[in-house]
Amino acid sequence: MSDPGGEAAETFEEFKDSFSYGSRNDLSFKFMKSLSLEEAAELIRRTLHEVGELFDDPTADRLIDLAYEAQVRGYTPPPGAERRYVYEDRPFRAPAKPLSETVVGLVASSGHFLADDPPPEVPADMTQEEAAAAVSEFMRRAPTLSEIGKDTPPEALRVRQPGYDIRSAERDHNVTFPLQPLREAEAEGLIGTLAPVAYSFVGVCSQGRLRKELDGWVERWLAAGVEALLLVPV
């Protein structure tokens, strides 16, 4: 099919797929690529309907729920699909003592780092749009584990991650890097001690290289006295 100008018209499938690292890239809606044409069309129809409802009812909860339900459908493997990744239960184990007596550490794949100490794969002047455009490069790289002191103020933090929409994390870093809630848990005695250094890395990376890095990372955490880790996958 061609438009009046003689150029091939975009198909609906191309349109819905363009939100996943395409011309309309939006990491909150990249799941649309996994939806069928019928599901994507129904999502757009219902979204427009809910926008119309906002004219009289300014509560956006139903619109948010609609997007969330569509994300679940988009990311849920179809019945009988082959599992791409298999995770073992080890080395997880029951805590040796109450959490209120435990040194707790934080590790997130959120892509946080200190403004004055960016990891090599994220140049200080890299924008989020540039990070998303370089997603294939990130997936070939070994990740860098950034160290972030537990008393780091929010204004000293930066976040870049080509795998998710960082807008909420930029407004409140605790959304994906919950340092402040852990400090509050320490002050309230819910955990024994918060480890002096928290850690983050860009989760969009070479999984093979990540596995090779893990032993060294664990040694660093143990050397810092960490007894339990809060793992935040993003």
Task: Detail the topology: elements first, then pairings.
Elements: H1 12-17, H2 37-53, H3 61-75, E1 103-108, E2 112-114, H4 128-133, H5 135-138, E3 146-149, E4 157-159, H6 167-171, H7 179-187, E5 193-194, E6 197-200, H8 207-223, E7 228-232
Parallel strand pairs: 1-5, 1-6, 1-7
Antiparallel strand pairs: 2-4, 3-6
Helix pairs in contact: 2-3
Features:
single chain; 5-stranded mixed sheet; alpha/beta; two-stranded antiparallel ribbon; 2 domains; 234 residues
Structure description:
- This protein has 234 residues and is of the alpha/beta class.
- It is 34% helix and 12% strand.
- The chain is built from 8 helices and 7 strands, in the order H-H-H-E-E-H-H-E-E-H-H-E-E-H-E.
- Strands 1, 3, 5, 6 and 7 form a 5-stranded mixed sheet that branches. The chain has a two-stranded antiparallel ribbon with strand order 2-4.
- The relative contact order is 0.15.
The fraction of residues in strands falls at 5-15%
Radius of gyration: 21 Å
Contiguous runs where pLDDT drops below 50 for at least 5 residues: none
Structural class: alpha/beta
Task: Report mean pLDDT, rounded to a whole number.
Answer: 93
Name the helix and strand elements from N-terminus to C-terminus, one letter apiece: HHHEEHHEEHHEEHE
**Which overall shape is indicated by the principal axes computed on the Cα atoms?**
globular
Number of domains: 2
Number of helices: 8
